[in-house]
Design goal:
The complex is a heterodimer of chains A (417) and B (390). Chain A is of the alpha/beta class. Chain A has two domains: 32-161, no CATH class; 170-411, NAD(P)-binding Rossmann-like Domain (Rossmann fold, 3-Layer(aba) Sandwich), CATH 3.40.50. Helices cover 30% and strands 20% of the residues of chain A. A seven-stranded parallel beta sheet of chain A has the order 11-10-9-12-13-14-15, sandwiched between helices. Chain A has a five-stranded mixed β-barrel with strand order 4-5-6-8-7. In chain A, helix 6 runs parallel beside helix 7 (264-290), helix 7 (264-290) packs parallel to helix 8 (318-339) and helix 10 (390-401) packs across helix 11 (403-410). Chain A is globular. Chain B is of the alpha/beta class. Chain B has two domains: 9-118 and 212-228, 3-Layer(aba) Sandwich (Peroxisomal Thiolase, Chain A, domain 1), CATH 3.40.47.10; 140-210 and 234-388, Thiolase/Chalcone synthase (Peroxisomal Thiolase, Chain A, domain 1, 3-Layer(aba) Sandwich). Chain B is 35% helix and 21% strand. Chain B contains 14 helices and eleven strands. Chain B has a nine-stranded mixed beta sheet, sandwiched between helices. In chain B, helix 7 packs across helix 11 (285-294), helix 7 (162-176) packs across helix 12 (303-309) and helix 11 (285-294) crosses helix 12 (303-309). The longest helix of chain B is centred in the first third of the chain and has 16 residues, at 27-42. Chain B is globular, with a radius of gyration of 19 Å. The interface between A and B is large, with 39 and 38 residues.
């Protein structure tokens, strides 16, 4: 078993904040396949399409037949520990600060031998299960776990560093008026969050969920994403203790460009769905980036809840899709802007949700609880991309296969009689 | 078709430029120093060279090509060997072939590296693509962790103890005490070894080499040429190299030597008992122990018993790494692939001075290089013998 994490002490503001350090980021292009799989929590390795050989480290040609078509395929994540060492010193600052740690070599059932981190609860010999997780540089690395779950295993220092676990952390949920706010708050506390702040716009307006949010333990604070001063003010108050920020703010009206004859709704969608994200990032981003090495309650993740139609427009919600496409594009920029600090940007691509604005769409639809579960699981697994709901997963699959075909599917006309 | 012999080839003028821990000079400087040392020893001028072979990790952005212009050489045969610890034997073997074929008359083989503060760390991150992708991201700060894994497995497989590896290190330190160029001059006891600061279990401080700056050089020419110039020389009785051997072994418990060792002995017309001294590549003692096995001095897994049975010092029953090897003389980058060979050349030509093994007529030198991912990829070995002592 792993020693449980102790709740962190209150931070002494007079002490120097530990500067963020990172594990090595540089990889070959081929090796980025591992990171792409880790972004979704999959254990995948290159497998030659000609001869079927599974190989690692990533190559540009198959070492068995010189074939060059080497797609990344999900593999059996089990293997046998061959040898291990506890490393006590390193030339690399990130590891120096975390010494000692265990690494080992594992012969995978799928064939290749890997070098990997070893969870503290792994016995010295025998079978292990491999996780592919993003490290603080946002690159996929492999971690060997014991076959059976052990007590508090998530609190192992290496495993913790390969996640964005809400346990002991303080979270801001940006929009308390979103129907999913209460479920997010409840699930965050269930996952061990130390504190949940909830932003609420136009506090003079009644919020039907307000009492429930407070009862669930959330601290409701004034936050208007269309107002730069309001966002800055809140960052001034709680920016220094926001470890995870979940932007669930959404303004949604049905229709494409021709559904209306003005730009009022389109403008409002951009104000909240896109510019709101920019304002939040400007106000909270730098402070969070500076606090990514704060220990147990370091800043770890920035979560954007996006419509899956950010990737390919649903013309029934054309203007809304466009504002989400803008937010999606900005999220990619934020990944780069946060990269040096190790702050993770996790996008949750969501299908139509179970609420009034999607009333006329048939099921399946995403319930608030399902969304909250996806968000928590994604944080615990340290993901970058989470696909929530059957519709989102279906769109992902079609989009991966061929974005042009998906676009054509999404933009069919009315069949004539 | 069987390999042709290396007869008619003479190896002369071994030269080691004294190592230092850190240097403000460049690899070019260190290579020039060693080259000049060998040329002076042979009474030659740079213009007398028509073959040039270099190994170095820190020449960037130059290669052997840039060095020709930098050092004012006009070779008609040029080679650059990036094989780390296998570079010396491989350079010798190729230069010998060039001389036999008449492609070059006098070849200088040189290896040298500088060591600036932080240059070791910088080299690690870009050592190989597999290292960059699949070992460095786990905090493999250089080969320490790799060799810790091999040592861990070897100990479990064959029952070796830390003291067995300690015997190799302690004997080499004793040899280094007699080698004027060694960087580490403090006596080392088995207790010192066993109680040293752990680095990557089961590896501790004295299992690791100290990166330093230094350079090594020797010349290859025909026997006639050596005799005409009245130079003491060594003969090359046989040499092998092998790369990426035993790729299906899940972990490295043997090296490429096992594929070619019988041919090496057959070529040289010798057996292990004929070898008067052995120079192994010793960046960690486990790999020296594997070489003792794979080169035929004992069976696989018998290395621990072998080192318990033998005294590995200069005056011992099995003289091994007589200049202290890299473990005690320091690892000067690619020159680490030359240190054993250059010392062996001094030994068989009777010019080793303080470290001279009595009646050192025949030496074996082996090289091992390049932890590309989880194991060393290059292996090489040569048998050299006394040609003429003048």
């Amino acid at each position: 078993m792993t020693d449980p994490l102790a709740p962190p002490q209150k931070k002494n503001p007079q002490k120097r904040s530990t500067s963020p350090t990172r594990p090595p980021e540089l990889r070959s292009r081929a090796a980025l396949g591992l990171s792409a799989a880790a972004a979704e929590g999959r254990f995948a390795l290159q497998q030659c399409s000609e001869c079927g050989t599974v190989q690692y480290p990533p190559r540009d040609a198959c070492h068995a037949c010189l074939g060059t078509d080497l797609p990344w395929r999900d593999q059996d994540p089990h293997g046998t520990l061959l040898a291990e060492t506890t490393v006590r010193t390193s030339t690399r600052l990130y590891f120096r600060e975390r010494a000692p740690w265990r690494v080992g070599s594992v012969k995978l059932n799928a064939g290749p031998v890997i070098l990997c981190h070893i969870h503290g609860d792994c016995p010295r010999e025998g079978e292990v299960r491999i996780l592919n997780r993003l490290d603080r540089s946002g690159q996929g690395v492999l971690l060997a776990l014991p076959i059976e779950r052990t007590q508090n295993m998530e609190d192992d220092p290496v495993m913790r560093s390969l996640s964005c676990d809400p346990n002991h952390r303080r979270v801001l949920v940006s929009d308390g008026r979103n129907p999913n706010a209460l479920a997010l708050v409840e699930h965050l506390f269930k996952a061990g969050a130390a504190k949940v702040f909830v932003g609420e716009s136009e506090t003079w307006r009644p919020n039907p969920a307000g009492a429930d949010l407070a009862a669930a333990g959330a601290e409701v604070l004034s936050l208007d994403l269309t107002d730069t001063a309001s966002v800055r003010q809140l960052a001034g108050e709680i920016g220094g203790k926001t470890d995870i920020l979940i932007n669930n703010a959404r303004f949604l009206r049905p229709g494409g460009a021709l559904a209306r004859d003005d730009t009022a709704f389109a403008q409002q969608e951009m104000e909240i769905n896109y510019l709101g994200l920019v304002r939040l990032a400007q106000a909270f981003g730098p402070g969070m980036c500076a606090r990514t090495s704060d220990g147990v309650n370091s800043a770890v993740a920035w979560v954007n809840i996006l419509s899956v139609y950010a990737l390919s427009s649903d013309p029934g919600f054309g203007c809304y899709s466009a504002s989400n496409a803008a937010a999606y594009s900005l999220s990619q920029s934020l990944r780069a802007e946060f990269r040096d600090s190790g702050l993770r940007v996790m996008n949750v691509y969501c299908g139509p949700t179970e609420d009034e604005w999607y009333q006329l769409l048939p099921p399946p639809k995403v319930t608030p609880a399902a969304l909250a579960r996806s968000v928590i699981a994604g944080l615990q697994d340290g993901l970058e991309d989470v696909w929530c709901g059957d519709v989102a997963k279906d769109i992902r699959e079609r989009w991966r296969r061929d974005p042009k075909i998906l676009e054509r599917e999404m933009t069919m006309g009315q069949e004539e009689a | 078709m069987s390999r042709q012999s290396y007869e008619g080839v003479a190896i002369v003028a071994p030269y080691s430029h004294p190592y230092v821990r850190y240097s403000v000079d460049t690899a070019h400087w260190w290579i020039a120093k060693a080259l000049r040392g060998s040329l002076d020893a042979a009474g030659l001028k740079p213009a007398d060279l028509d073959g040039f072979c270099v190994s170095s990790f820190t020449l960037f952005p130059d290669t052997a090509v840039g060095l020709t212009q930098h050092l004012g050489l006009t070779p008609r045969w040029l080679d650059h060997i990036p094989m780390g610890g296998a570079s010396g034997v491989v350079a010798l073997r190729r230069a010998a072939r060039a001389v036999q074929a008449g492609d070059a008359d006098i070849v200088a083989c040189v290896a040298g590296d500088t060591n600036h503060i932080d240059s070791f760390r910088n080299m690690l991150s870009s050592f190989s693509r597999f290292a960059m992708d699949a070992s460095y991201p786990y905090g493999f700060g250089g080969p320490n962790a790799n060799f810790a894994l091999l040592t861990d497995r070897y100990m479990r497989e064959y029952g070796a103890t830390r003291a067995d590896f300690g015997r190799i290190c302690v004997a080499q330190r004793s040899n280094a005490m007699r080698y004027p160029n060694a960087v580490m001059k403090k006596p080392l006891s088995l207790d010192d070894y066993l109680n040293a600061r752990p680095i990557a279990d089961p590896i501790a401080l004295f299992d690791c080499v100290m990166p330093c700056a230094g350079s090594e050089c020797f010349l290859v020419m025909s026997e006639e040429e050596a005799i005409r110039r009245a130079l003491p020389y060594a003969c090359l009785d046989g040499a092998i190299e092998r790369h990426n051997a035993h790729a299906d072994d899940p972990i490295q418990l043997r090296g490429g030597w096992t594929m070619d060792i019988d041919e090496l002995y057959a070529m040289a017309g010798r057996a292990p008992a004929d070898i008067d001294l052995l120079q192994t590549y010793d960046d960690y003692p486990v790999i020296s122990m594997m070489q003792i096995e794979d080169l035929g001095f004992c069976g696989k897994g018998e290395g621990p018993a072998f080192v318990r049975r033998h005294d590995l010092t200069i005056d011992g029953t099995f003289p091994h790494n007589t200049s202290g090897g890299q473990l005690s003389a320091g690892q000067a980058g690619a020159a680490g692939g030359y240190i054993g060979l250059v010392e062996a050349l001094r030994q068989v030509t009777g010019t080793a001075g303080n470290t001279q093994v009595p009646a050192a007529g025949c030496a074996m030198v082996s090289g091992f290089g390049m932890i590309n991912f989880d194991r060393g990829v290059c292996s090489a070995a040569a048998i050299i013998s006394e040609g003429a002592r003048i």
